[in-house]
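1st attempt posting a full record on here, be nice pls
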Amino acid sequence: MFQDQNSTKYTALAVYILLLLTPHLILANDSSDETYNIGGVLADNISNKTFVDVISELNFNSKYKTSRRMTYYGKTIRMDKNPIKTVFNVCDKLIDKRVYAVVVSHESTSGDLSPAAVSYTSGFFQIPVIGISSRDAAFSDKNIHVSFLRTVPPYYHQADVWLEMLNHFGYTKVIIIHSSDTDGRAILGRFQTTSQTYYDDIDVRATVEMIVEFEPKLDSFAEHLIEMKTAQSRVYLLYASTEDAQVIFRDAATYNMTEAGHVWIVTEQALSSPNTPDGVLGLQLEHVNNDHSHIKDSVYVLASAIIEMRQNETITEPPKNCDDPGVNWESGKRLFHYLKTRNITGETGQVAFDDNGDRIYAGYKVINMRPKQKRQIVGEFYYDPAKATMRLHINDSLIIWPGRQRKKPEGIMIPTHLKVLTIEEKPFVYVRRLTDDEVTCVDDEVPCPLFNNSNGVENDYCCRGYCIDLLKALSQRINFTYELGLSPDGQFGHYILKNSTTGTLPSSPPKKEWTGLIGELVNERADMIVAPLTINPERAEYIEFSKPFKYQGITILEKKPSRSSTLVSFLQPFSNTLWILVVVSVHVVALVLYLLDRFSPFGRFKLSHVDSHEEKALNLSSAIWFAWGVLLNSGIGEGTPRSFSARVLGMVWAGFAMIIVASYTANLAAFLVLERPKTKLSGINDARLRNTMENLTCATVKGSSVDMYFRRQVELSNMYRTMEANNYDTAEQAIEDVKKGKLMAFIWDSSRLEYEASKDCELVTAGELFGRSGYGIGLQKGSPWTDAVTLTILEFHESGFMEALDKAWIFHGNAQQCEQFEKTPNTLGLKNMAGVFILVAAGVAIGVGLIIIEVIYKKHQVKKQKRLDIARHAAAKWRGTIEKRKTIRTSLAMQRQYNVGLNANPGTISYTVDKRRYHRLGGGSRVPEKAWIGDNNDVLRNRRYLDPAFKPKHSPKVHGPMLGKIKHTGNLMPPKYSPGYTSDVSHLVV
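the predicted structure (as tokens):
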């Protein structure tokens, strides 16, 4: 773009002489010409002359002129050390000339007050100001310097080169030393912001271990150096003025902190100290003292902006004086915007600006300080046109480090005494609090005090377990001592997003702040974490992890479901429908058997010819007894079917009963003997977990790796939102609630849950492992112990030491016991068979009730039978008397017949007796035969019909003839108590 420098000088000189000879040609101000006045507030006459030459050269460059009438004029004044005079000069000699922009330079000894005065004054009228030497951070504040740009970068931009150098050398932990002025704080902020913004890889990102801030113009730096010696980092980034750097280097040499093993990277001002130690690396801005190049670049940048703005919009004239405070030059604002968008290749390199108007793409030289204050360029920070970015190149072979070492220092001091943190997590870490009587821990324990940050109280605890044994082995193998402590808040640690919005960075993303063990490590309050710490991407971004010492995953712990052993457990082998069908079948078969045996012609037959007893057919009661007896496999002694058809049905029923009983027996063993309760959940993909129901509660531990896992998994978001409210502070609390039944599912690391399940056989893990990961030892980023710990853990895996720890602490042999318990059939107890016993008890109760009913019924029957027997006895006695009388009459009749046949004298003794007894019978003739039943004149038989009190029950048609034959003579009734009379006893006969 530019011509050769020598030819440019000759051309400018010729133009300058021509302008001196013909001043009227230059000063002529035709109203039709387009003129642009450019002001300059420069430090010396040489800069003034350079400025005029560049303007003259610009007028002959057609690239920066849109027409022949377009002319640039330069208006210059000298910079005054008094900023007040500078303000008046700007108003009287520049703004009155209606300048479109002002180029400012100053002497390094005069300070930045005068350039600031020019910026304030011009900025008040929106006139752009281009600085070529001011590098203070204050000029980046657009609230004050509203229209200020500069072709030199500010001092705090050296932080960008620092980061590139640290990345090149591989240093990830540094100590920043800076003054407490604006530039010192700005370089610290730039370093931290750029590190987090542009270096996404945490492995190469530089972290600040310590920040040392000092007041400018210090007398001693020894107190800060003593503090720095306790830090791990040995890489020092120094921003200080030349005078302050001299004091710092002096005291650092006293404490041997400028010798071998230390690294000093300093800025330009500190590099200029007369006692800069050998081996220090510093930066030097290219073209820093070349005012000619900066003036030329600034003028051409301004011309480029004017040309583009003139093509796009109309440029109004700038203010003509400082008397009108209300003037607001809108074109000046637009011109400043165009200036910030410039990106040209000038004599000082690639010229471009950021939003603050600061120069970017500025080149630096990397300087290595040699003996006798000699400077050796060992690298450069340059602009790469191909990639349009800055690149760093350093020749490591040329560098001589402090202590005149050729080998690059490690940059850190490897400590041998580490602060180790752990957390209670069985079986990896068991924690026991010391009692008042105890002074120290036992042999297999390690003191692990808990220092509570909230109240500052330190409690004495002792730790043992898997991780403690691992820590002991590591310390012995790689030779370090340690001080063990518990997590202050009792958590592994999770991050909290906090807004880090500031005035300068309004759109910066939220910052993650860690708690728990991770927070202690990130904030460098601990050196190592030896605990069941799960390796995950969120944690690995902020801390180092060793290789896993144990591989594991995530699983679900739940309590085994209780057996459904109710009072009717013995009925479980068959469904309710089948039981109903069996009962119905018994009675249906009994009814069919009864009908077949009753209606079969062969249902009645004699068992033998000699036996006259005929066997009866099967009745309904016997049929029901037979059907139940066959089904229940009880002996049937009587009441069996007799017909062939009924017996065929009986055989079929017996086969049916055999199958039913065999099936019931086999299924009963499966239900009550070999049954093992299954888990309620099938795993993480169980629909009840994905769509959590009200009666299902699941949880994990707050801030744990499992909690982070659920945060990452989008498909588990619904489940996580539900379980987030149920999460516990510790795993112990959750496991206890699972045992008590308050929590249905606890989601946690498989190692711990398998340990709990092996210890308590009532607990079980559900489903397969998911979210597989491993437990690792946590260390600080860039820790020198990372590689050593990783290699040692790999050796422990190969030697079987880790397997021995698993057997000793995790399983305890209980896993085999639970496994054996699972394979052994259950022993039936009263709970399982209570229903059977209750059934027997019910049978006994029913039997007792029935016997009581039978006894009562029997008593009633006995009374009834007694009455019946009395009646029958009376009837039998009456019948006997009648029979006896019949016999007597028969014998008498036979006697009479005999006597008649022999013509015997009728006046026998019997006759005489009868005549005396029945003297009324027969009137005067007493005939004994008339007194007996069966004779025609038998008065005894019809006595009741002669009794006046007797009311006949029969009609006169029946008894009339009989009464007509009876002669009613006097008192013909025989004696009431005659032997021939008896009372009516028919009412006694049942």
